[in-house]
């Protein structure tokens, strides 16, 4: 299917280029942008458009509308969208223990996970996010559900099963072997989706909750499969101090 969008177009060819076409166009064919510019009729009559369908659907934007490149969210905890606004009066580690870990443990319920993740992907797309790097939970199956939901709604995504084998609540922790095996199975299941739109990423939660042994094993999986790695950095003084004095991942 071919479409041509007419109206205001914001274009960024590189980090140093910002272009605004006040009366621009974007031509799309088979789901791919094939041309953009400020004069559709000129392009339409040129040789460059010879293979573009002449019966393309024309979509005229209003004065209030514009097209721009999709946003990229480099770090989003998908399950935590369900608790936005809660615990803002707490330090990070208390917030994790009181709100976040109990919530993420609920994602072992696949029906609950499917309901939340459907809304998460939908809301991020509506906000203009066309590529998201998602943290899931420790649960492999529900994290696959997140990947399938992104694929179903057409969002490009990096998706990671969260790994943690220490300094976590008893109801939400893995041992090293469980975490490694589940991660390998997760990567295999992601490959079975057969799409370049969604890809697995190796996801240790943070240094506090992973031993050096687990981090080494996860690094090996990433290297063997040529995968991205995402992790939470220490973002609070208390977190840094606790990591330095308690974490098994610190040399």
TrEMBL record:
<dbReference type="GO" id="GO:0006147">
    <property type="term" value="P:guanine catabolic process"/>
</dbReference>
<dbReference type="GO" id="GO:0008270">
    <property type="term" value="F:zinc ion binding"/>
</dbReference>
<dbReference type="InterPro" id="IPR006680">
    <property type="entry name" value="Amidohydro-rel"/>
</dbReference>
<protein>
    <recommendedName>
        <fullName>Amidohydrolase-related domain-containing protein</fullName>
    </recommendedName>
</protein>
<dbReference type="InterPro" id="IPR032466">
    <property type="entry name" value="Metal_Hydrolase"/>
</dbReference>
<keyword id="KW-0862">Zinc</keyword>
<dbReference type="GO" id="GO:0005829">
    <property type="term" value="C:cytosol"/>
</dbReference>
<dbReference type="GO" id="GO:0008892">
    <property type="term" value="F:guanine deaminase activity"/>
</dbReference>
<dbReference type="InterPro" id="IPR051607">
    <property type="entry name" value="Metallo-dep_hydrolases"/>
</dbReference>
<keyword id="KW-0479">Metal-binding</keyword>
<dbReference type="InterPro" id="IPR011059">
    <property type="entry name" value="Metal-dep_hydrolase_composite"/>
</dbReference>
<dbReference type="Pfam" id="PF01979">
    <property type="entry name" value="Amidohydro_1"/>
</dbReference>
<feature type="domain" description="Amidohydrolase-related">
    <location>
        <begin position="66"/>
        <end position="233"/>
    </location>
</feature>
<keyword id="KW-0378">Hydrolase</keyword>
